[in-house]
Request: fold
Amino acid sequence: MLILGIESATMQVGCAIGGHEGVLALFESCRGKRHAETLTPAIEFTCRQANVTLDEISVVAVDIGPGLFTGLRVGLATAKAIAHALRVPMIGIPSLDLLAFPVRHTSRLIMTVVDARRGEVFYAAYRAVPGGVQRVSPHQLGKPADLVNEIEAGREDVLLVGDGALRYADELGSTRGVEMAEQWLAHPSAAPLVQLAHAKALREEWVNGWELSPLYLRKPDAEINWITRDSR
Amino acid sequence: MTMLGNVRPHRPVNADTMVLGIETSCDETAAAVVMGGTEVLSSVVSSQVDLHARFGGVVPEIAGRAHVELITPVIAEAIVEAGVNDSRIDAVAATVGPGLIGSLLVGVSAAKALALVWGVPFVGVNHLEAHLYASFLEDPELELPLVVLLVSGGHTMIVVMEGHGRYRLLGQTIDDAAGEAFDKVARFLGLGYPGGPAIDREAMLGDPEAIRFPRAMLNDGLDLSFSGLKTSVVNYVRKHPDVSTADVAASFQAAVVEVLVIKARRAAVAVGAKGLCIGGGVAANSLLREQVLDVCTEDGLRAFLPSRSMCTDNAAMIAAAGWYRLRSDGPTPLDAGADPNLRLPVIL
Ligand SMILES: [Zn+2]
Reply:
């Protein structure tokens, strides 16, 4: 069973192909934000390097965010169209989960932090469990200061990972008991996406393309303004 | 199924060539299958009007979110309605601009992905050029040169089409689009959204000569301006709070239509056009249709008034324009993106 993984939730865009043998081929680029230009040729390239034709793909996995809205939509639209054309199911995995998986070999509490722009971050907490990680908090949106408060209240050693952690490294890194993960782990990768999706696919935990939506965690501005206007 | 990297042997583009068109430039998610550039086998349009109505205009982020939800179901419906299999599609065309970037990218991404899986060419289409091709969908025998008055919430331009891919921009709005003026005035008058149909309805009950609103730039060439008109409507109503809304709507509409028709007629005379065509959402306005017809009869021009569904944004026009572009320029590379400010490719 081969999985095509598509990842475009942050400044990075990537894709990977893998299955029970692990990741067969991986493409990643974080040069600029030309997700739409890069993604389709990247999938074509990755297939060719893995010596796989698209009709051998059994499941299309995609990072559903949270992250940058336009990038997410490029990934979701591409993934849904491919799954539809191949008549295969889909598996959606949150960006914050993808960040936690590669750093699971730690005894610290893992907090993954994705830059949400406008002075805010998306974040969630994870604990290592045999074979993977388990999320122990909801996916949240808040200011870096909110995250600092949570870390301090937890009184536990924490490993921070993600582009949001890097962006607010001054503020977050000086918190007691905090260690920062390496820079090359700061973007969710299509490699853990394929691995996590493969495990889910073995359990047939997939959905139809039309059931999959991005995890935005933030309402459109117009709706926020509308609600505040209504309550005035 | 297809082999990756082996695009199907390049088939000639002819009357059998079937193009799947995808349109997501604004607030309609649309897909259509068109054969030979003219025969519409299906045209599905999923409008988001209800999602944007309470905001009185299109909200880009809400539009982008809705496109992601709707894109594959709409494409699937278009193919089923056309009564063909995926394997019969020879090319996938999508709007690459102009429009809202977050919306455009959904359609472009889906189209490129389908082209990749099916091993067929992708064709990037200019939305404005597609509006010109909408007229050919209903009348492939249209005679050239043809003057097209393209009026919607996003565009207001007068173009002469001299041949396939040969256009000249004769005039355009220097500020608001005509449809935008309709939306703003309708919102100000409390008539709801979208403004075009609302004003059209209300105007039927009013006197178009009740108020003499200014006709901007009437004697200066072929460019247009609507922001001053909107301001005078607002000022007039503030000064005369008891005025009948129907009279304001009718007088405003009369002013917009008079300017549009005079300019389009002047353009047709200037280039020796054989016909005059209207397109875009405002082309559904009943007064505009009536007056274009009158002018054409007087001047011996062929009037072309496409049906409302072909005037407003749809994917059949994208598939049609895609067929012509594929025939003239070949496929668009898969590393193409979208351009929110794309202009009509005009000859000088
Ligand atoms: Zn349009």
Observations:
- Chain A has a mean pLDDT of 93.
- Chain A touches chain B at residues 34-41, 43-44, 47-48, 52-55, 69-70, 73-74, 76-82, 84-86, 209-210, 213-214, 216, 220-223, 226 (CB under 8 Å).
- Residues B 127, 131, 152, 154, 280, 313 surround zinc ion (CB under 6 Å).
- The helical segments of chain A are 35-50, 69-86, 95-100, 144-154, 163-167, 169-173, 190-202, 221-231.
